[in-house]
């Protein structure tokens, strides 16, 4: 059964698996390449369960790019918004709330100064997500805010390792 374009049967099956196994471990691996001439500056391949997509990015002119393709932070914002919208749709479906409208507008406030000068000032200042829906879903918004993997990654320090490949 699909509710809010969510396969509720798959969600309930995942829920049973997570309860029985103490979680569902997943890994994501991507590779991209920086280009030294022209635009796009960065090209990568992203795979879904059924398709492969080529994605591209440029830095804005302010950071020395050509600004033709979207910026990496646009992808970050889009990823957060899409993850949050899906998580919210899942919470609504689990709570029996059927929606006919769910729109998310994201606002990312940041300072690129620390990218080009030595500074300990935070680069990302604030993220705001505005939800427009045809029902009162304030309770589900609170649940999705806690359960969205992208928001979790932003709010909680995660281990980051950078290294040169051998």
Explain what you see.
- The chain has helices spanning 8-21, 72-94, 113-116, 138-147, 149-155; strands at 2-3, 6-7, 31-34, 42-47, 52-57, 102-110, 124-133.
- By secondary structure, the chain is α+β, with helices and mostly antiparallel strands.
- The chain has a 3-stranded antiparallel sheet, with no helix packed on it. A two-stranded antiparallel ribbon has the order 1-2. A two-stranded antiparallel sheet has the order 6-7.
- α2 (72-94) packs across α4.
- The longest helix has 23 residues, at 72-94.
Write the layout of secondary structure elements.
Blueprint: E1 2-3, E2 6-7, H1 8-21, E3 31-34, E4 42-47, E5 52-57, H2 72-94, E6 102-110, H3 113-116, E7 124-133, H4 138-147, H5 149-155
Antiparallel strand pairs: 1-2, 3-4, 4-5, 6-7
Helix pairs in contact: 2-4
Q: Keywords, please?
A:
alpha+beta; 5 helices; GMP Synthetase, Chain A, domain 3; three-stranded antiparallel β-sheet; 166 residues; two-stranded antiparallel ribbon
**Percent helix range:** 25-40%
Which fold does the CATH topology refer to?
GMP Synthetase, Chain A, domain 3
> Mind telling me the CATH class?
Alpha Beta
Number of helices: 5
Distance between the termini: 48 Å
Which architecture would the CATH scheme give at its second level? 2-Layer Sandwich
Number of strands: 7
How many domains? The number is 1
Can you give the mean pLDDT?
96
Strand order of the largest sheet: 3-4-5
What is the radius of gyration computed over CA atoms, rounded to a whole number of angstroms?
19 Å
Q: Runs with pLDDT <50, length 5+? A: none
**Basic shape:** globular
Category from helices, strands and their pairing: alpha+beta
Main pleated-sheet profile: 3 strands, antiparallel
């Amino acid at each position: 059964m699909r509710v809010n374009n969510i396969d509720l049967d798959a969600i309930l099956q995942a829920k049973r698996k997570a309860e029985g196994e103490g979680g569902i471990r997943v890994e994501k691996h991507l590779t991209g390449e920086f280009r030294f001439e022209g635009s796009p500056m960065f090209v990568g391949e992203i795979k879904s369960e059924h398709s492969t997509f080529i994605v591209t990015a440029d830095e804005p002119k302010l950071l020395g790019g050509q600004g033709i393709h979207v910026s990496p932070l646009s992808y970050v914002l889009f990823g957060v918004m899409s993850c949050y919208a899906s998580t919210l749709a899942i919470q609504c479906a689990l709570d029996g709330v059927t929606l006919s409208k769910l729109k998310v507008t994201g606002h990312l406030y940041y300072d690129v100064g620390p990218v080009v000068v030595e500074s300990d000032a935070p680069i990302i200042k604030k993220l705001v997500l505005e939800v427009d829906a045809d029902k009162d879903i304030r309770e589900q918004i609170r649940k999705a805010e806690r359960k969205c993997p992208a928001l979790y990654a932003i709010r909680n320090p995660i281990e980051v390792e950078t290294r040169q490949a051998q």
